[in-house]
Every structure is written in C-alpha cells, then in structure tokens.
Amino acid sequence: MSFSESSKAFAYPVLVADIGGTNARFALVDGPDAPTRMCGKTATADHIDICSAIRGTVFPETDIKPRTAIIAVAGPVTGDKIPLTNAAWVIEPLKMISELGLEEVVVLNDFEAQALALPGYSGEDVEQVGSGAVRPASTKFVLGPGTGLGAAAMIHAAATWIPVPGEGGHVELGPVTKEDFEIWPHIERVGGRVGAEQLLSGTGLPRLARAVAEWMQAERQLETPASITEAAEENDAVAVKTLEVFARALGRVAGDCALTVLSRGGVYLTGGVTPRITRFLTDGNFRAAFEAKAPHEALMAKIPTFIVRHPNPALEGLASFARTPDAFAVDMQGRQWTGPVSANDN
C-alpha cells in the first residue's frame, strides 16, 4: 500500500458516503458526466463496520463495483483509524481497500463535504431568506444546526474553490436585545461560557428551553428537540419563544460568519434542525438579526441567506468533488489512501 498526498483524477465508479452517528448514506458516481446514483441509507447500528454496510447496502445496487470511495465523517481525520463521534464504527481505509477491492479511499470532514456542494446549488436546492444576491465566484459559508453546530467556508481564490472546515459553531454567543439580557442569566454554562453550539443545536435546544421557561416562570418540561418543535406547532408559549430566540441568535452567528470571511456568495443553513423551524427562519427576525451588524448594515443587506432544501447535501458535495476534482483545492495530506493499481490501468 502507498500513500498519495493529492489526487487530480479518481477511478470510476466512485462511491460517496455520508457517515453520521445514526445513519450512513451512500451513492455512486459512474463517471465525470454521470448523475449521482443513490444507493440507499442504513443504520450504523445494523452493521459491525462500514465494510459490512457497503456490502449490504451498495453492492446489491450495482453490477460494477466501485474503485474509489470518498467518505465524509463527523470529526477530524487523524491516522489510519478514524473513530466516529456518535457511533461504534472505526473507519479504517486500508481495511476497506483490502476487503472491498478498492483502489483509493479519501476521508473528509462532514462539513467540508457540505461546503463542496455549495457552488453547484440551483433552483429548488435552496430557498432564499430575505434580501441580497449571490456574487459569482465569491466566498460562501455553510452553517448547520443539527446534533451540534457545524460550520465551514468555501473560499474562492485563484479560480479555485477551497473548502475550509472549522469550529465556527463554538464561537461565543452573548445577549444583544433587552429580552436576551433577561434570558441569558438563566442559561446553563458549559465550561464557564455560553458557546453557540450550546444553544444552536439539537442538544442545545432543550438547554435554551429550560432557560426560557425559568425566565417566563412557566412549569414546562421540554427535554427533546422534537418536543419543542411539536409544542411550537401547537403555539405553546415557551416553545414558541424558545424558537424565536433560537432563530434570532442563529441569525447573529450567521452574520458573524459572513463578516469573518466576507461571504458575498451567500450563507447557507443546513442541519437536521433547520427544516423543522422554517417559519421561525422566514418571519423576518432571523434576517433582521443577520443584518444588524452596525456599521455594516448596508453590506449585510447585500449578502443573501438560504435554507438548503437538497435532501443529501453532503453526498452531493462529495459527488461534485468526484466529478471535477480539478475545480476544488482539497487538502489530501493524511486523508488519502491508495492500494494496488487495477490491471485495467496498465
């Protein structure tokens, strides 16, 4: 086995995989001009490892076995054994090459994959929230409240898209409005601080709901994200206020991210929480908080914000990379493994 620092062409078919804590999603890209071919979803708990999942989910869907695998995982890629944050799997690229007959395996961060999808969105893939227009060939940003709060930038420089994953979801989140200043003293601190992910995520929503209930002096037990969104649909006062504060705070963090990298190409919201709180993101408060960045309100009004409606954004990002690797500058150092070259390539 050999390790290659970079790759400018992949051997097709390319298997792309989005590996989460609960589910693994797979698709195939048969060639540089081929559409993304979905191969199904499976629960990680149903398989001992990724090799088992691919054999059971992907192989029955194709006559031609994949030669390359490009995988997105939640968390950093370090070494030849990559444990998942919220599942029992350990991704072992060399084992995948040996057991599945692959020639190459690439493992990227999940929000790097989300960023790779941004330049290709069009039409119904996204829903715009508020004013602004995309400036072509300009930096974009993706922010995803899900289990946690993921973040990544897609920088455009030297005619190339450069995905930059980071930990923007852990920036500080302080009070701004009079209502915020009344609620914030009730928020549970983690590590002595209030970080964005501590509120703006599936795990953070119940923490925010408890603070809002205390502030409102209401006896409410909303301990799961689903219970909060469901209660809000019934116009429960605590749940509605929780999601109003959530959307306003998400707008502020999204605005901070936009200013940090001057994302004139737009800010895009993904993640499992986003589609469940659409009415709170489109009622004007999210966008008002996004733009309220004095003295830069005029600039912020020009930067568009979007809800991503594409059903599989990470897979689509990996597929875009598989089709046109030359369009992206992706750091492969320590994240690419190769096996013996196929006899077809000799």
From TrEMBL:
Protein's UniProt keywords contain Kinase: yes
Reaction catalysed by this enzyme: D-glucose + ATP = D-glucose 6-phosphate + ADP + H(+)
EC number(s) stated in the UniProt entry for this protein: 2.7.1.2
Subcellular localization, as worded in the UniProt entry: Cytoplasm
Binding positions for ATP per the UniProt entry: A17, D18, I19, G20, G21, T22
Key words, A-Z: ATP-binding, Cytoplasm, Glycolysis, Kinase, Nucleotide-binding, Transferase
Family named by the database record: Belongs to the bacterial glucokinase family.
Protein name, as recorded: Glucokinase
Species name: Roseibium porphyridii
Gene: glk
